Amino acid sequence: MIKPVTEKELVRQAGELAARTRREIEAAGLVITDFEQVARLFDVTVAWGELPAGKDGSYLKDERKIVLSTSVTTPERINFSFCHEIMHARIEDDDDLLSDFADAYRRSDEEAMERLCNVGAAELLMPAENVRQIMVERGFSTILIPELCERFGALSIAIAFQMVNCASHDCYLVIAENQMVQLTAAHNQTPMPNIKPINVSQEQLVIIYSGAASAAKYSIKRNQTIPVNHLLCMALRSNEPVQGDARLPFASGNGWDVPCEALYFRRKVFAFFNRTQPMSNLQMPLF
Ligand SMILES: [Zn+2]
């Protein structure tokens, strides 16, 4: 009997496909931010449009068309989202990877596919080998994100993903952004006649991306609001990384406290939840 491939192997294949895609884009003399031309290289078109809240982009397989949300305005998020959608297209065109994916999950597993596309998007923007080399020298910490951005350009989301993709310990990545969230009135409140309900909106920290190292067992849902007393909210008021035990934000609410390091950088909070100790730089394997 043939054994189905593991998720780790699928992640490796997605990374390889992304590295190949990056080389093809370079060989065509294009940079990744030439969205239309890069998409055309893979016989895909790009359009901008309104998408449901919390959705940055979408790939319409039958039309071979990427739709990017007009409500996303930060360049790092737009670039990451374009790369994520290009990876959907590339994976859909890769029969070997698709067949391994079907064997591994035996059904369509949207979350697993999202993870592969995030791994690929990070690899398109920032080769893992560059990040791994620096982690070997410097260890695993959020302070590498601004340093690597300085060296390689505005790629904070891709760098954070590559750090967690290359990590060999059990850790989770959360990237959160302050957003205006509409507060709904309490359900038990009886509406008063002749009084219009007041629309209250408030700034809250919302998870825009999450990732997990291959040693991690679970995944963290996007678009969750972080409670105001969480360590991640404290990072908003600091210019330095904040450290401490913090609850893993699982959607079930059943997360537990683990050592966490969070850094506010470029209007986003980058947090690593380390369920096991990161290897010291001397122990870090070379590949
Ligand atoms: Zn997707």
Number of helices: 9
Cα gyration radius (Å):
20 Å
End-to-end CA span = 31 Å
Characterize the biggest β-sheet: 5 strands, antiparallel
Quaternary class: single chain
- The arrangement of helices and strands along the chain is HHEEEHHHHHHEEHEEE
> Mean pLDDT, nearest integer?
89
Which small molecules are bound?
Answer: zinc ion
Q: Classify the helix fraction into a percent range.
A: 25-40%
What is the global morphology?
Answer: globular
Read across the widest sheet, the strand sequence of neighbours is: 5-4-8-7-6
Our estimate of the beta-strand percent is 15-25%
What's the total count of β strands?
8
Q: Structural class of the helix and strand makeup? A: alpha+beta
**Uncertain runs with pLDDT below 50, 5 residues or more?**
none
